[in-house]
Amino acid sequence: MSLIVTVTWHNPNPDTIANKLAARLGREPTHQELKDEVCRILREANEGMKARKS
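and the corresponding structure tokens:
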């Protein structure tokens, strides 16, 4: 016997990454779109840190 548990979080704060992306897309983003957006933000932050060190 196996058990699958799914959890969904809801945060009505309009300033979350997911809510800002949903507003930009005009629909709920997919998990892949959220992952890509977070990776983009982290990549840009990393590039900014590297630029400041130079």
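(Above: one complete record from the training split.) Residues 31-53 form the longest helix (23 residues).
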